[in-house]
Amino acid sequence: MSDRNKLRRQNGIIAGVCGGLGEFYGIKPFWFRVLFLILALPLGHPAIEIYLILWLVIPRRRSR
Fold this sequence. Notes:
Blueprint (H helix, E strand, L loop, with lengths): L16 H9 L3 H15 L1 H13 L7
């Protein structure tokens, strides 16, 4: 499996989670940021916990 098909955190605004999800699914990271923002507004704390869990679970992209 090539690196392109693996879910990896990218260099991003906070932890690279949205950038990694965007690259993996072929969607701009902006839309994942909007999704997390929409989830964080009514849910608050649980949305932040989901982001932190993803930050810990998704490995970093290796520097080349």
